[in-house]
Amino acid sequence: MAIITQPDLLPEGSVAVTIGMFDGVHRGHVWLIDCLKRFAAERHLTPAVVTFREHPRNVLCGEGSMKLIMPLDRRLDLLAATGIGHIILMNFTPSLSKLDSGGFMSLLNRSYGTAAVLMGYNHKFGHNRNESFADYVSRGKALGVDVERAAEYSGEYAPVSSSIIRQLIESGDVAAAAGKLGGFFSLRGTVVHGFARGRHIGFPTANIATTDASALVPADGVYAVEVVLHDGSTRGGMANIGIRPTFDDGTAKSVEIHIFDFDADIYGKVLTVNFVARLRDEIAMKSVDELKSRLAMDLEAAKSVLSRIVFPE
């Protein structure tokens, strides 16, 4: 498998592609790539995924306009894990956005060795989104590019789409999102100094800062999580997302992780937090003692959830 970042590196007429952002590399995406492999094999072509570094909306409307399920490096790792032949990684630019479907297929045909295109069931590309599937077929035929459409994913977790998964995460239903993703939604960030409130009440937390303005963050609340430390080891924990209303620290949202049975200095280290289940809303307590009591209950609830984890298969 190779990641193709420049034109004219693939032999003419050598690949069959499917096109998309593939944010999340969810079960529907994996289904489509499996269909592509069969589609390509029937034509004695190499299967390749065409994707973009930047989400089109973030290019055209500003960074952060579209929140993303995962960063580029994670997306590429999961695409590679599907066993796809090549990943064609393109920059989405304003000039590219002006191409219609025929113009984009022509670019793929001339510069990226594309002989065939397998479209996702509901996918469209090119600036004219009113085109029918027959229009895509006609434009492809004029270029000598075979265009077909994949069957719709109809597995246990259907319907599946990146937009549905984003909505689930934004509402806090990370467990349902994990089923559709085929793995837990995760956030990655650097441990930074916070108010040290948790340490003073017996629940030290690692405050996670993400530098990506497009990173999706779950709804405010308390979650059972798995934490992958900087050394690759994994520990259970619980996360609080919100504004710490009990302490009235302002309106800035934070992501704080209490790692079970752990007290090492990890400031400046990068953690990955896998969100397993939402435990409750973030609520203001009447006193610090009430907060401590509730956190003790949350800890037991999180440990119970984590002890019953069934990883999505």
Give an overview of the whole structure:
- The chain has 313 residues and is of the alpha/beta class.
- The protein contains 10 helices and 12 strands.
- The mean pLDDT is 92.
List the helices and strands and how they pair.
Blueprint: E1 2-4, E2 15-19, H1 27-42, E3 46-52, H2 56-61, H3 72-81, E4 86-90, H4 94-97, H5 101-111, E5 114-119, H6 133-143, E6 146-149, H7 162-170, H8 174-181, E7 185-192, H9 197-200, E8 206-209, E9 221-228, E10 234-242, E11 254-259, E12 270-280, H10 288-307
Parallel strand pairs: 1-4, 2-3, 2-5, 3-4, 5-6
Antiparallel strand pairs: 7-8, 7-12, 8-11, 9-10, 9-12, 10-11
Brief descriptors of the model:
10 helices; alpha/beta; 313 residues; Rossmann fold; six-stranded antiparallel barrel; Elongation Factor Tu (Ef-tu), domain 3; six-stranded parallel sheet
CATH superfamily of the largest domain: HUPs
* Number of H/I helices: 10
Unreliably modeled segments: none
- Tell me the number of structural domains: 2
Which percent range fits the helix content? Answer: 25-40%
> Any guess at the CATH architecture of the largest domain?
3-Layer(aba) Sandwich
Oligomer: single chain
Overall pLDDT level = 92
Main sheet?
6 strands, parallel
Element order, helices and strands?
EEHEHHEHHEHEHHEHEEEEEH
Give the C-alpha Rg: 22 Å
Protein structure class: alpha/beta
CATH topology-level name of the largest domain:
Rossmann fold
Span from first to last CA? Answer: 24 Å
Label the overall shape: elongated
Strand arrangement across the biggest beta sheet:
1-4-3-2-5-6
Beta percentage is 15-25%
CATH class of the largest domain: Alpha Beta
